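User: Structure please.
Assistant: Input sequence and predicted structure:
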Amino acid sequence: MDWEATSAFTPVGLALRGQPAHRIVRTLGDAAYMLLKEWPSDDGEEYVTAVKACVDAISGQIAPDQFWDAFLRAADEAGIAALTVVQRRS
């Protein structure tokens, strides 16, 4: 299980409605936490698909980038703004 997989996707900043802080999701573990603890609703079709894809990616059954596509679709479904985080290289 790889909770900290990061190499397959670019970190994303999420702006949740009604919450003052933004969240940055860098790993599968971050994404799982967001989906299970901070997601605004748990009844959307894309949400359910993203949760399943997250479990599959953590257990190595699918590539993390396949999960990432599902995660971004779930964010769109929930009205969560998702912004790519650009990291400067030193």
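The mean pLDDT is 83.
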